[in-house]
Amino acid sequence: MMKMIVEVLPSYRIAYVRQVGPYGPANIQAMEKLKQWAREKKLFTESAILLAFPQDNPETTLPEACRYDAGIVLPKDYQMDDSLCENELSGGQYAVFKVNHTVEGVQRAWAEIFPAIQNSGYQIDNKPIIERYAGDMMANEFCELCVPVKEEGRV
Question: Which of 36, 78, 80, 110 shows its CA 20 to 30 Å from the CA of 16?
Answer without folding.
Answer: 110
